[in-house]
Amino acid sequence: MKISLYFDEDSQDTSLMRALRLRGVAVTSSAEVGNNGYRDEVHLEWATLHRQVLFTFNAQDFCRLHALYRAQGKAHAGIIVALQQQDATSEPMRRLLKLIAIKSAAELQNQLEFLSAWP
Questions:
Q1: Percentage of the chain with pLDDT > 90?
Q2: I want to staple 6 with a disulfide (CB 3.0 to 4.6 A). Which of 11, 24, 52, 70 is the partner?
Q3: 8 Å CB contact between 46 and 92
Q4: Distances (CA, A) of 12 to 56, 68, 72, 103
Q5: How many Å apart are CA 3 and CA 108, to the nearest integer?
Q6: Distance of CA 62 to CAs 14, 19, 66, 83, 93, Å?
Q7: Phi first, then psi: what are they for 28, rounded to 5°?
């Protein structure tokens, strides 16, 4: 199954979302589903419920949540963390497209991926 992405509040770069959609990637943002203003846990729960991999720039909180989920034996659909927000859309888009081309949704389940690992 192909990866579907959920962009949390920290990652709602509309040009990046638009560019990914133009390339056939299913993308949902927290704003589109009315989740802005909620805690990080709610974003991860929503993404998991809808089988979407969460994409964020909030490394600290989502690394902590990933560890907490593992310790509690809870499952999530996957988390992709970009360590640095950039003005250019092309770099994160290229890395996300590479990751999506290589990994399936099943392979990302319960995984934490750093976008910087996908040059």
A1: 86
A2: 52
A3: no
A4: 9, 25, 29, 23
A5: 8
A6: 21, 24, 6, 11, 20
A7: -130, 140
- Cβ within 8 Å of residue 42, ≥6 positions away: 35
CA distances from 32 to 8, 29, 51 (A): 10, 5, 16
Structure tokens at 6: 């959920």
Q: Is the distance from CB of 48 to CB of 82 less than 8 angstroms?
A: no
Domain CATH number, residue 79: 3.40.50
Quick: pLDDT tens for 31-55.
999 999 999 999 999 999 999 999 9
Full residue range of the structural domain in which residue 76 is found: 4-117
C-alpha 105/C-alpha 117 separation (Å) is 18
For 57, the token pair is 């720039």
Q: Which residues of the chain have pLDDT under 70?
A: 85-89
- Number of structural domains (the chain) is 1
Whether 80 contacts 111, CB under 8 Å:
no
